């Protein structure tokens, strides 16, 4: 591979090390320890160094000028390989933007393929739930990337021991996410004290929890703590009611769109008419924590001011 003939302007991904040149392989006095160096998967900004060796089969020392492509550096710039001996050089890659890296390390007539795959930096996001009685809670959550619009969902309590992953679905509650702005919201059921807090069955109540807009820059844990939820009060002044845990219930949230703020801009126009100049305000936020149990009679809950969890 090291003495293969390059295919002109053909990309490295298309030709690999090139066309095998048997004559060059037999003639060259210096051989490389590897035809390719694979640096594996890297994240943006990461550096990694690998070592490559050269053996001199000749009777005199060999001077090898070393050069690598963009993103790769090699030390030393010139390597002296003693007659009948070996010498080593270090190749370092610094990962830039995400994508595939394919370059060549040249040492006189010897070529070595350099490869790496660069991914965007990711951090760990762990989510767990606590019921209103303090026990581990059953429920679920979604993680919405507000910068890209991608959505990931998980069920709680899930399997906290599972490794972190960027898969859209799974049993683990640890996600690998890009640093950015996210909406992390979920719901937690609180079961009767006589039942397993994470088992299925009729809950006492259900709580909507989380943060609709948060910055994630490093490893983060989000706790959906139903003890911080504020109960939605329901009034039925026209008839008496009682709590009915078997009734249908729904918990919903939404993100308010941008609302224009307008002011009249002076301009020479007919009397009684003006032109408006508008600017956009920041999107509104939905409540962070709510909990309610519907009463008998099917009355709708009355919304209270937006409470927030800590």
Structure notes:
The chain is mostly beta strands. 3% of the residues lie in helices and 44% in strands. It has a six-stranded mixed beta sheet, with no helix packed on it. It has a five-stranded mixed beta sheet with strand order 2-9-8-4-6, with no helix packed on it. A four-stranded antiparallel beta sheet has the order 1-3-7-5, with no helix packed on it. It starts with 11 loop residues before the first helix and ends in an 18-residue tail after the last strand.
Alpha-carbon Rg, integer: 32 Å
The proportion of residues in beta strands is 35-45%
Shape: rod-shaped
Ranges where pLDDT stays below 50 over 5 or more residues in a row are 262-288, 292-310
Number of helices: 2
Number of strands: 20
Broad structural category: mainly beta
Order of helices and strands: HHEEEEEEEEEEEEEEEEEEEE
Report helical residue fraction. under 10%
Distance between the termini: 61 Å
Overall mean pLDDT: 79
Largest sheet: 6 strands, mixed
Strand order of the largest sheet: 12-11-14-15-20-17
């Amino acid at each position: 591979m090291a003495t293969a003939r390059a295919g002109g302007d053909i990309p490295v991904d298309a030709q690999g090390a090139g066309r095998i040149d048997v004559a060059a392989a037999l003639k060259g006095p210096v051989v490389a320890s590897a035809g390719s160096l694979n640096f594996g998967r890297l994240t943006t900004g990461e550096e990694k160094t690998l070592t490559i060796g050269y053996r001199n089969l000749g009777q005199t020392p060999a001077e090898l000028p070393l050069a690598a492509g963009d993103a790769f550096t090699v030390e030393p710039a010139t390597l002296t390989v003693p007659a009948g001996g070996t010498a080593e050089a270090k190749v370092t890659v610094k990962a830039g933007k995400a994508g595939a890296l394919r370059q060549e390390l040249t040492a006189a007539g010897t070529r070595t393929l350099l490869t790496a795959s660069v991914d965007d930096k990711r951090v760990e996001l762990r989510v767990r739930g606590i019921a209103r009685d303090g026990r581990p809670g059953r429920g679920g959550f979604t993680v919405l990337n507000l910068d890209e619009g991608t959505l990931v969902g998980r069920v709680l309590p899930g399997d906290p021991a599972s490794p972190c992953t960027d898969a859209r679905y799974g049993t683990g509650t640890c996600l690998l996410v890009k640093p950015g702005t996210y909406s992390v919201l979920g719901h937690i059921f609180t079961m009767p004290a006589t039942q397993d807090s994470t088992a299925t069955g009729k809950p006492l109540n259900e709580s909507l929890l989380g943060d609709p807009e948060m910055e994630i820059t490093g490893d983060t844990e989000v706790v959906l703590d139903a003890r911080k939820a504020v109960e939605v009060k329901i009034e039925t002044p026209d008839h008496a009611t009682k709590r009915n845990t078997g009734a249908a219930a729904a918990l919903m949230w939404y993100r308010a769109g941008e609302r224009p703020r307008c002011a009249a801009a002076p301009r020479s126009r007919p009397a009684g008419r003006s032109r408006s100049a508008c600017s956009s305000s920041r999107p509104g936020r939905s409540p962070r924590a709510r909990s309610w149990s519907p009463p008998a009679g099917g009355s709708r809950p009355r919304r209270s001011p937006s409470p927030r969890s800590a």
